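Possible regression after last week's pipeline update?

I re-ran a chain I had predicted before the update to compare outputs. Posting the input and the new output here so someone can diff against the archived version. Not blocking, just want to make sure nothing changed silently.
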Amino acid sequence: MEKTILDVRNLRIRYGGSPVEAVRGVSFTLGRERLGIVGESGSGKSTVGRAMLRLLPGATITADMLRFEETDLLALSEKEMLKVRGRRMSMILQDPKFSLNPIRRVGDQVAETYLRHFQCSRREAHDKAVAMLEAVKIRDPERVFRQYPHEISGGMGQRVMIAMMLLADPDLVIADEPTSALDVTVRLQVLNILDGLVRDRGIGLIMISHDLNLVRNFCDRVLIMYAGKVVETLKASDLDHAQHPYTQGLLAAQPRIGGTRQPLAVLDRKPEWLEESL
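New output (post-update):
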């Protein structure tokens, strides 16, 4: 039986004193696979990803279970979470322009991950960082190591982010729109890198995206989120056979090459969708 890396049951998240929960009763499991979470902006998919690493200051997180391997994430103190973040779980954020420190060299930021989680010399951390930059298909990694974020392209910056998050060899990677700012060619290269990590290293990968075509072709399973809830779960290969009208509406709203010139379908949201539970 495939090992369960992450077990989430009845996850609920509320920001500040808001009377409305941002995430309402989300449940799922993750093995050594690629799980896609899709939905419109504001559906709660990124909030779910950040909750796994407890990166929601000011929010109240509750769950019947929030277990990563043998660790109860809700029972950990902030000091204990620092040993989990980056080392065992990591998150690739969607825009390197805002995620990388503009006044520090790229390589120093990557090497910091290794220095933080392992007892090693700066030379060893430097060598590990350069090797990882090379592993994510960056040419001349020594030169890129010495550059600042504004000196590299968006695609290269995204690869740097991936290298930084993978340097400590985590068991779970959460990728939040990792290819949204990339052109098609670079996007395929980044996806091939992530696919290789799942296949070769046996990690669990959560891909957060609004791109249904990407999720259909890349992931193994898909969670569809609407207004903070999971309304449908299915195999990625079965996405075109979705049963929930919300998923069907998202699919119908996609432009298609060679399609008709008629206006795209508009979602007709139903009040009862807010109360449905999966």
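Follow-up from reviewer: compared with the archived run. The first strand starts at residue 6 and ends at 15. Marking as no regression found.
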